[in-house]
Amino acid sequence: MLKWLFSALFSAGMYAASYSQCCGQSTPTGGVGNMGTLNRNALQVVVFHRYSSSVNQKADNPYLILDANYNFIGTSVSYGLTKKYTLETELGYFINKTQRYKLNPVYTLKGFGFSNGVVSVKRSLFKAEKSGWEIVGGLGLKFPFTTNYQMVDGVQLPIDNQPSTCAFGIVPKILVFKKYPKQKLTFLFIHRPDINFRNKNGYTYGSGFTSSLFVSKELSFISKNTTGVLQVRNEIRLNDIKTDGYAAETTGSKLLFISPQIGQVFGKNYFLSFTYDFPVYQQFNTEKLKYKQAFTFSFVMNVPNCKITRDQGVELNEETGISVSMVHQDTTFRVYGKCEMCKASIETRLLNLDGVDTAVWDIESNMLTLRYDPAKITPDKIKTELALIGYDTDSHRASKKAYKNLHACCKYERPG
């Protein structure tokens, strides 16, 4: 009886009056893994779980829906193709996308399944290591895992319960970074439109526009491995376009969130964090369910170099038949420097060189540990590259101009 009643209600147009829009079609994201382009062959994996709930409607409200919530598991994987280009994928699954309706007894509808996936490429547009600025642009393709609306118990779920838009789309983005290594402070601004195309049912979900400002700071009073992040996020969603070509007047919103986050680094390359989303402003085109709160638990794994290499072996050049060395060698030597900014500059420069597999510089000892392919690069070439950006080694001295161009916090005491 309830199944028949709900089919009748929605087919008769009651859906517009009961539409909630809370927990809508924008794919939830973790927020902790936002980075510019990765170093060549570097890998980053982000896995997160997000729970969001709405404010409960009053018993005498004129709308059918009482409340809504969802649980979402997502992941993004990024890989450094070159020093300028990074490939990125985003996948997610709704464990539940639930709405409760004011019937007697209370009726619950729950959607579940894969959300839209995104495959994108990010490119470094501008990078100035000395001043800490970086600008990154990206473009992605949004794709559905199915183009059919989900049915539960013979009833087509409402738009807001669907886990996917069932349509393709595009996702451009721009990221602007400003880093202050000495103060352990980073600012990040992200603007990301989500443009949705019409699905095969003739319905177009409203495109979304998200702008976020992140401020992250090392919380040294707790631990040097503890980071605090404050995010201010503005989300704008346009009206949906119905199958008749007209805007769905009950859709569209403007939202503002403040999201504090605390995270802990483990073993240098692993990061765990907790984020709380607090809505400070919500404007909907009509009376809607409003967001109450959201919690996100995230895990980030960074692999500085995931390139598969063999310690030894012989490979033949396909054209010449001449053997090519595949012996990767390790070496250690002193590179004079002073701070975390030096570490970032030295390691980034070397990891972007063809033939360098790993590069780790220790601040306290000033010792650099390398793994490299001698068929592609030599220690002499590596030291020359370091001298060009202002860093002395045991056998190569940077020019006065290169040393002078170092950031103030990087001015180490030169040998000799």
Structural class: mainly beta
List low-confidence stretches.
1-21, 308-326
Q: What's the CATH class label of the largest domain?
A: Mainly Beta
Radius of gyration using CA atoms only? 26 Å
CATH fold-level name of the largest domain: Lipocalin
The spatial strand order of the largest sheet comes to 1-2-3-5-6-9-10-11-12-13-14-15
Overall number of strands: 20
Question: How does this model look, in words?
Answer:
The protein is mainly beta. The chain folds into 2 domains: 2-303, Autotransporter beta-domain (Lipocalin, Beta Barrel); 314-410, Alpha-Beta Plaits (2-Layer Sandwich). The protein has 5 helices and 20 strands. A 12-stranded antiparallel β-barrel has the order 1-2-3-5-6-9-10-11-12-13-14-15. The chain is elongated. The model is unreliable at 1-21 and 308-326 (pLDDT under 50).
Task: From the structure above, extract its key features.
single chain, 416 residues, mainly beta, Lipocalin, Alpha-Beta Plaits, 3-stranded antiparallel sheet, 5 helices, 20 strands, 10% helix, 46% strand, elongated
List the helices and strands and how they pair.
Elements (H helix, E strand, L loop, with lengths): L1 H10 L2 H5 L24 E12 L10 E16 L4 E17 L5 E8 L2 E12 L4 E11 L7 E2 L2 E2 L12 E12 L4 E12 L11 E11 L7 E12 L15 E14 L3 E15 L6 E13 L10 E3 L6 E3 L3 E6 L5 H12 L4 E6 L5 E6 L6 H10 L11 H5 L12
Antiparallel strand pairs: 1-2, 1-15, 2-3, 3-4, 3-5, 5-6, 6-9, 7-8, 9-10, 10-11, 11-12, 12-13, 13-14, 14-15, 16-17, 18-20, 19-20
